[in-house]
Design goal:
The complex is a heterodimer.
Chain A: H1 20-49, H2 61-64, H3 68-93, H4 97-128, H5 137-164, H6 169-173, H7 175-205
Helix pairs in contact in A: 1-5, 1-7, 3-4, 3-7, 4-5, 5-7
Chain B: H1 5-33, H2 39-61, H3 70-94, H4 105-111
The chains are: A mainly alpha, B mainly alpha.
C-alpha cells in the first residue's frame, strides 16, 4: 500500500523558496490581520463618533473597571510565553527534544494562566457589576476583541498540546518536519501575542 | 531561515534581548499613560510603542529578519496595503455625514421606534 506523502514539508518549494507549511501559515496570518484589523477599525469609528458627554459618551477608566495592573500582568505572561515558544523551536533545531517539549509545556502553562486571569479576575467581576457586552459600545468591543483573542489563545493551547503529546511521535519519524511544524505553531503564537500588544494599550490605557 | 547549530545559538541571545526590551517597553507604555499630553498625543505615543514592540516580535520571534522567501513578502505586502485601507475606513466614513448629525450607534437606537420590527 502506498502512502501519500505531502510534498515540501522540509525542503523549500522551488517557486516559493520556503517549505509549504510556512507559506500557508503566513497566508493564514494575513487573513487574521484583516479579522482583527476590522475590529480595531470599528473601535476607532465608534470611539471617534461617540458624543463627548451624555449617557452615550465613551466611558472613563473608572467606568470601565479595567485594571492596567491585571492587563499588564497578562501582557508579561504572553511575552514570556512567546519566549518559551521560540525557545522550544530553538531547542528542537539543536536536536534537544526533551528540552523543546519542556518549553512547549511551559508555553501551555502560561497560556492557561492568561485564560484563568482573564476569566476569574476580569470577566467575572465585570459580569457581576452588570458590565455585559450589551452595556455600551465600549463593552461590546471589549468583549468581542478580548474574547476573540482569548479564543485564539485556547486554539493555541489545543495545537501546542497536540504537539506535546500525540503529535510528538512525528519527532521520532521525521525530526525536521516536526521542528518545522513547531515553527509554524510559533508563528501563530507570536501573532496572538502581537495582537495583545495592541489590545492592551488601546483598551486599558487610552 | 537558515538553521545550523551555531546560527540558532546566536538567535537565542537575540530572543532574550527582545524579551527584556518588550518587558521594559510594557512598563514604559504604562508609565507614559499616566501623563496627559493631549488626546492625540497619548494615542500616538501608545501606538508608536506598540508598533515598535510588534516590530520586534515580527522581526525576531517570527524570524522575518532572516526571511528571504519572495512569496511570504508578497503576501505581507498585500496584507499591509489592505490593512491601511481598512484602518482608513473610519476617516473616510467621517467625511460623508453632515456635521450637525451625531452618528453613534446609541443615537440610532434611541431614535428608533419602540415597536418591535415585524417579521417578514
Amino acid at each position: 500500500m502506498s502512502v501519500a506523502v505531502l510534498p515540501h514539508t522540509v525542503k523549500p518549494h522551488p517557486i516559493t523558496g520556503v517549505y509549504s507549511g510556512k507559506l500557508g501559515t503566513w497566508l493564514f496570518l494575513a487573513s487574521e490581520v484583516m479579522l482583527f484589523g476590522a475590529l480595531f477599525s470599528s473601535y476607532v469609528l465608534l470611539r471617534v463618533g461617540a458624543p463627548t458627554d451624555g449617557p452615550a459618551a465613551w466611558p472613563t477608566h473608572e467606568q470601565t473597571h479595567l485594571s492596567w495592573k491585571i492587563g499588564g500582568f497578562n501582557t508579561l505572561v504572553l511575552i514570556i510565553s512567546s519566549v518559551t515558544m521560540v525557545m522550544a523551536w530553538a531547542s528542537l533545531k539543536m536536536n534537544q527534544f526533551a528540552k523543546g517539549r519542556m518549553y512547549l509545556a511551559l508555553t501551555v502553562a502560561l497560556a492557561l494562566l492568561f485564560i484563568i486571569v482573564k476569566l476569574t479576575l476580569e470577566y467575572r467581576p465585570k459580569f457581576e457589576l452588570g458590565l455585559v457586552p450589551a452595556h455600551n459600545n465600549f463593552f461590546a468591543l471589549y468583549y468581542t476583541m478580548t474574547g476573540l483573542h482569548a479564543l485564539h489563545i485556547i486554539g493555541g493551547i489545543i495545537v501546542i498540546g497536540y504537539f506535546i503529546l500525540p503529535g510528538s511521535a512525528l519527532w521520532h519519524r521525521d525530526p525536521e518536519y516536526y521542528t518545522n511544524r513547531i515553527e509554524c505553531t510559533g508563528l501563530y503564537w507570536h501573532f496572538v501575542d502581537l495582537v495583545w500588544i495592541f489590545l492592551f494599550p488601546v483598551l486599558y490605557l487610552l | 531561515m537558515g538553521g545550523s547549530h551555531a546560527d540558532v545559538s546566536r538567535h537565542v541571545k537575540a530572543y532574550y534581548a527582545v524579551f527584556t526590551t518588550l518587558a521594559v517597553m510594557t512598563v514604559v507604555t504604562v508609565a507614559v499613560a499616566q501623563f496627559h499630553f493631549s488626546d492625540i498625543g497619548n494615542v500616538a505615543v501608545a501606538l508608536l510603542i506598540a508598533a515598535f514592540k510588534a516590530g520586534l516580535v515580527a522581526a525576531i520571534f517570527m524570524h522575518l529578519k532572516w526571511e528571504k522567501s519572495p512569496s511570504i513578502w508578497w503576501a505581507l505586502g498585500f496584507c499591509a496595503i489592505f490593512f491601511v485601507v481598512l484602518m482608513s475606513l473610519p476617516v473616510l466614513t467621517s467625511q460623508d455625514s453632515p456635521p450637525q448629525v451625531q452618528h453613534t450607534m446609541w443615537d440610532v437606537r434611541a431614535a428608533a421606534p419602540a415597536t418591535p420590527h415585524a417579521g417578514h
